[in-house]
Amino acid sequence: MPYFAAALARTAEGWIAEELDLDEVEDLEALAEELRDLTGEGEGPALMLLEEDDEYVGVVRVDGGVSGLAEPRVFLSDRRAVQASGVAAMLWEGADADEAEEDDDEGHRPVAEPVGDPALLADLGTSSEDLLALCVEEGLLPADVHTAICERAGCLDVLEELREG
After folding, report:
1. Is the pTM of this model over 0.85?
2. Which residues, including other chains, have CB under 8 Å from residue 16's CB and lie 6 or more apart?
3. How many domains does the chain have?
4. Could you tell me if 81 and 3 are in contact, meaning their C-beta atoms sit under 8 angstroms apart?
5. How far apart are CA 16 and CA 10, in angstroms?
6. DSSP assigned state of 40
7. 127 in helix, strand or coil?
8. How far is CA 78 from CA 22, 64, 154, in A?
9. With contact defined as beta carbons under 8 Å apart, do 161 and 17 qualify?
10. 10 Å Cβ neighbour count for 138?
């Protein structure tokens, strides 16, 4: 599946962004280290925004700069992505296999069920309720969700620059 992964970090000079190649990332901790490196000595936060094949939204957050010891926080808009995507599985490495199983109810695709920490962006202007509402809003693509998140956090300009390449 094709994906777009953006790393955004708040530094003393403002927000910065770069595109990530997740094929080169071994696990969630390696991704967290890469994100912390972007903040330099600052407290961040650093975010990784992921959209894969217009199927789901992924967000990873780390705080604390290079010396930060806080665990990365992860949110996925659809638990089914953990089984369908190697990237989502890597992000959700601690997922319970039962939680990530697909339900097959008479051939209908089950409703997307978010997993992880929906409050990870609350201090950046997107409450858990808002994030969950964005993820289920009819007609919104993952890129639209990321646009809304970044607009509220004040980093939409760097995300747009990155998308424009």
Report:
1. yes
2. 8, 9, 38, 158
3. 1
4. no
5. 6
6. T
7. coil
8. 19, 28, 26
9. yes
10. 4
Nearest to 3 by CA among 48, 42, 41: 48
pLDDT tens, position by position, for the chain (165 residues)? 589 999 999 998 899 999 999 988 999 999 999 999 998 878 889 999 999 999 999 999 999 755 556 789 999 999 999 999 999 999 987 434 444 444 444 444 556 799 999 999 999 999 999 999 999 998 999 999 999 999 999 999 999 999 997
Burial string for 116-129 (b: 16+ CB within 10 Å, else e) reads bbbebbeebebeee
Pull the structure tokens for residue 79.
């638990």
- Written as six digits, the tokens of 73 are 């926080």
Helices (H) and strands (E) in the chain, counts: 7, 6
Distance CA 159, CA 50 (A): 12
Please give the residue range of the domain that contains residue 88: 3-164
